[in-house]
Amino acid sequence: MERQNKTFSYKKCAIVCSLIVAPIALAFIALAVGRFPLSFSTVFQVLFEPISDVTNIDAQTQTVLWNIRLPRILLAMLVGAGLAVSGLAFQNLFANPLATPDTLGVASGASFGAVLALLFGLNLIWVQLMALIGGVLAVGLTYSVSANRNRGSITTVVLAGLIIGSLFTALVSLVKYVADAESQLPSIVYWLMGSLSSANYGMLLLGAPLIVIGLVVLLLLRWRLNLLPLPEDEARSAGVNISRLRLATVVSATMITASCISMCGQVGWVGLLVPHMCRMMFGGNNQKLVPACLSVGAMLMLIVDTLARTVSAAEIPVSILTAIIGAPVFIFLLRRTGGWSL
């Protein structure tokens, strides 16, 4: 028995270390890969130059690493981790394995705010702010629509989210229709397809805190997320205020999703696919699933973004690659498991 416990402890320790080390290793590889390839030794020297004696690194290499690739890689990891964890939160909240971060209309609202800013020719900071405002507005409208008779009904909230999402999708189409076909429409369409090419430290400074705060809240609440699909009476018997838990989950997941979309446009499949991959590997306990989704989501988005900027001369929008990769993987998981239950 003691030997089995030691084996289990070693296995658990190995899994935890892998989830921490693997994203860092992938990020290090991504720093070296690109149209301006760098050796791993050069990447190491540049990263640790402030605390080392190396002084012969040229300015171009430093610019590529510090100002172009590093902020982009940090953004990819944040977006991947954020969308994966928020997707898991919504799947538990609605007891629906097909729930995504856009279930409450967040992505549609954020997209409308962003394209409206692009229509008026505002800079990227304003695009980001307008996207955040649009995402929050969409969730507010969803809850105001669903808060009449069936205030506690999850089904009513989901239906309201579909209605508000469809409304904002129509408004996005309206903006595209009135936009100038030569000067405005191309930038709007490209933004909607998702890209991390405009990543910079200013963008991260504005959007990253909301993602980090939302992730920390969901990490702290991860064991309680197991209670979300339960009826209120059963959750109360466990000493949990289910209404407050649902509110904290919605606010955190909405902050994460709106901030992710505001920085890189619409990115599909990550919030749907990663929770199922992690559920297949680690089981259904959210104590394990939340940190697993955080790590696997970051790795998936890193891989997708690295492919987007390296496989062709022109950069491929990330939403195209996530769909091309996500659909076959999802079909494989579906055939392997025969479906999922929360």
Would you summarize the structure shown here?
With 342 residues, this protein is mostly helical.
How does this model look, in words?
The protein has 342 residues and is mainly alpha-helical. It is 74% helix and 0% strand. The protein has helices at residues 2-32, 40-47, 59-93, 106-119, 124-146, 154-178, 185-193, 201-220, 232-237, 242-264, 270-282, 286-310, 318-337. The chain is globular, with a radius of gyration of 21 Å. The model has no long low-confidence stretch (mean pLDDT 86).
Features:
74% helix; single chain; 342 residues; 13 helices; mainly alpha; globular
**What is the global morphology?**
globular
| Percentage of residues in helical conformation | over 70%
Supply the number of helical segments.
Answer: 13
- Pick out the low-confidence regions: none
**What is the number of strand segments?**
0
Strand content: under 5%
Averaging pLDDT over every residue, what do you get? 86
> How do the SSEs run, as a string of H and E?
HHHHHHHHHHHHH
Structure classification:
mainly alpha
Distance between the amino and carboxyl termini: 31 Å
Biggest pleated sheet: none
Rg over alpha carbons: 21 Å
